[in-house]
Write a structure and sequence with these properties.
The protein is an alpha/beta fold. About 55% of the residues are buried. It binds coenzyme A (COA) and adenosine monophosphate.
């Protein structure tokens, strides 16, 4: 497997090093050349605007339209008949294909419908949709008219949606009537109505895409039917926007209950997405790229919608799960049926397949010979999952590291540039454009092999966030204030002697549940608001399937004598209701006291170790070590820690 080429062209020794060196020494030259792959309606004044450092902007002065680049130009260049989107939906039993020409027509018409509702350049549109092509069509339609979309994942609660409505202040919300989970239909419309009732900002209209599985009742005046308004609309043309104008806002968990609105620009994003398809993933236009994620996450934005389409690929939009729709052979069936060249998913998906089919017996039923590589991201990839995937598939398995903020890989094995030997547990080396440094608490780079904070020297390459929506101050405080001249990734890890990066853990209270990024602080805020709770802590505990699962520990107010099991049930329901099922918050333990330092800081890390049954050092600053014994007892009784 080592050193295999994904493109068939064979390894080009030294290509990664040369590209990486050049991208840091001459970023303007490097990205200026990459930008030739994009159609611009006006050229830039400067590739990299650095006069405003530490705020940087890419391609200032230039104009383009992202939808033109993702759709129209491919039709103009002869790809009209090629499939742009394949919607493969085992939960409805349907597979449909949309050609580039059809996509152009449908996007232009929906863009026209949005314009008829008064949506114009710079207006925000929230998209709350299941995995249907209309989700991508809505995103591209916004891009077409210069509106800024903000997609909200369907597994979030009404309250989370309300928070995003209040922050983004959308003119219009576009929603599906329902989502379809294997076990149930999730009606989206009541959640939307509830969110609008909770929000201070009121959108002028909601456009509802009715699904036959559960159509929604429309509120006259406010709600409009997708099909009706689209049928009545004229196609809209692409509106040129500044390269530095926002394309979308994507909310992601921060360390508080208030999510961060990550902003993506148009120009840098289009350049980075396109460059990454060939150089990171080793994919050519016309090939089939499948990212098994959800449009509500950054992976879905970048690698279900924008990058494959910008590069002229066919993208698979999969409405199903790795297991249970109908079985652990689902991924192999999709690869065979659509001749997928490269698959991208989260390690948790492979853990689920391995759990259900450890000998990969389903694989024998399918021809997966089209597959050249598997890319994994979204959470730390345990070496055993990576090795298992490589063994059964017989293709390079690439762990790569990135975040909502960057929008594309910070460290990866760039198969299209130079496949490097794989080291399990490492996402390989920094991608060109990223100057990754591991710094100690003394602000000095640590020696190879030593853990520190993973930072990226500014400027970040094109495609990364220029700011947070409406909150430059939070952007600076969260990412730029820790070390002058650096971006704080929030991850800790180390680099080995060969320059391979190892990303080990977060340095904040963010956890990763089945590749979904969640804030334990946000969950604690929900628990703390329960009238019987005096104090609480939520920790992420290692889980064989989902990577991590949240565990709540609560102390009740003095005098509360209701059954603990009732309170625990209420707390679980409250987190599901206020954050969403995606939090997978299922366990809460009532404990007499929480362990703290003498200054009153709750020792969450120590409790995590106890719950996982891993070694820990007694914190020197602990106030009362006896509390740890109580916690250990409670955890053992709940089936967590090993006794003793
Ligand atoms: N709308 C409504 N509810 C949703 C939802 C959506 N779009 N997506 C998930 N949920 C619900 C699920 O039904 C589940 O609810 P439940 O508690 O009633 O069972 C809950 O949210 C948790 O969902 P999920 O994390 O998907 O867990 P799961 O047990 O259903 O499936 C995996 C586990 C591993 C199969 C699944 O997480 C998976 O396929 N992961 C692939 C990786 C991925 O998509 N990562 C995203 C970033 S790359
Ligand atoms: P998200 O913003 O949802 O993409 O989550 C980003 C976070 O997920 C990162 O900051 C990491 O903590 C974690 N993560 C993503 N990919 C990897 C990876 N390949 N290895 C380790 N951690 C990862």
């Amino acid at each position: 497997m080592q050193g295999q080429s994904a493109t068939g062209a064979g390894p080009r020794t030294g290509a990664w090093q040369a590209a990486h060196d050049r991208s840091l020494k001459d970023p303007a030259g490097f990205w200026g050349e990459a930008a030739a792959a994009i159609d611009w309606s006006r050229p830039w004044n400067k590739v990299l605007e650095d006069s405003t450092a530490p705020s940087y902007r890419w391609f200032s002065g230039a104009e383009l339209n992202t939808c033109h680049n993702a759709v129209d130009r491919h039709v103009a260049q002869g790809r009209g008949d090629q499939a742009a989107i394949i919607h493969d939906s085992p939960v409805t039993g349907r597979v449909t294909s949309i050609s580039y020409a059809e996509l152009q027509d449908r996007v232009a018409r929906f863009a026209g419908a949005l314009q008829d509702l008064g949506v114009a350049k710079g207006d925000r549109v929230i998209v709350y949709m299941p995995m249907v092509p209309e989700a991508a069509i809505a995103m591209l339609a916004c891009a077409r008219i210069g509106a800024v979309h903000s997609v909200v994942f369907g597994g979030f609660s009404a309250r989370e949606l309300a928070t995003r409505i209040d922050d983004a202040k959308p003119k219009v919300v576009v929603a599906g009537s329902c989502g379809i989970e294997p076990s149930r239909i999730v009606p989206y419309k009541p959640l939307l109505d509830d969110a609008i009732a909770q929000a201070r900002h009121q959108p002028e209209h909601c456009v509802i895409f009715q699904r036959e599985q559960q159509p929604a009742e429309l509120l006259p005046g406010r709600d409009l039917d997708w099909q009706e308004i689209t049928a009545a609309a004229s196609p809209a043309d692409c509106v040129p926007v500044a390269a530095t104008d926002p394309l979308y806002i994507l909310y992601t968990s921060g360390t508080t209950g208030q999510p961060k609105g990550v902003v993506r620009d148009n120009g840098g994003h289009a350049v980075a997405m396109t460059w990454s398809m060939r150089h990171v993933y080793g994919v050519e236009p016309g090939e089939v790229f499948w990212s098994a994620s959800d449009v509500g996450w950054v992976v879905g934005h970048s690698y279900i919608v924008y990058a494959p389409l910008l590069h002229g690929c066919t993208t698979v939009l999969y409405e199903g799960k790795p297991v249970g729709t109908p079985d652990a052979g689902a991924f192999w069936r999709v690869i065979e049926q659509h001749r997928v060249a490269v698959l991208f998913t989260a390690p948790t998906a492979f853990r689920a397949i391995k759990r259900d089919d450890p000998d990969a017996e389903h694989l024998g039923r399918y021809d997966t010979s089209s597959l050249r590589a598997l890319f994994l991201a979204g959470e730390r990839c345990d070496p055993s999952t990576l090795d298992w995937a490589g063994e059964i598939l017989g293709v390079p398995v690439v762990d790569h590291w990135w975040q909502t903020e960057t929008g594309w890989a910070i460290a990866a094995n760039c198969l299209g540039l130079e496949p490097l030997p794989i080291k399990s547990g490492s996402p390989t080396k920094p991608v060109p454009g990223y100057d990754v440094q591991v710094l100690g608490d003394d602000s000095v780079p640590v020696a190879p092999g030593n853990i520190g904070r993973i930072m990226i020297r500014l400027p970040l390459p094109p495609g990364c966030l220029p700011t947070l929506w409406g909150n430059d101050e939070r952007f600076r405080a969260s990412y730029l204030a820790a070390e002058p001249g650096f971006y704080l990734s929030g991850d800790a890890g180390y680099m080995d002697e060969d320059g391979y990066l190892f990303v080990m853990s977060r340095i904040d209270d963010i956890i990763n549940v089945a590749g979904h990024r969640l804030s334990t602080g946000g969950m604690e805020a929900v628990l703390a608001a329960h009238p019987d709770v005096a104090e609480c802590a939520v920790v992420g505990v290692a889980d064989q399937l989902k990577g991590e699962l949240p565990l709540g520990l609560v102390v009740l107010k003095t005098g509360v004598d209701r059954p603990k099991a009732d309170i625990a049930r209420e707390l679980v329901a409250k987190v599901r209701d206020e954050i969403g099922p995606v939090a997978a918050f299922k366990t809460v333990l009532v404990v007499p006291r929480l362990p703290k330092t003498r200054s009153g800081k709750i020792l969450r890390g120590t409790m995590k170790h106890i719950a996982e049954g891993t070694e820990y050092r007694m914190p020197a600053t602990i106030d009362d070590p006896a509390i740890l014994e109580e916690i250990q007892e409670a955890l053992v009784a709940a089936g967590y820690a090993r006794a003793g």
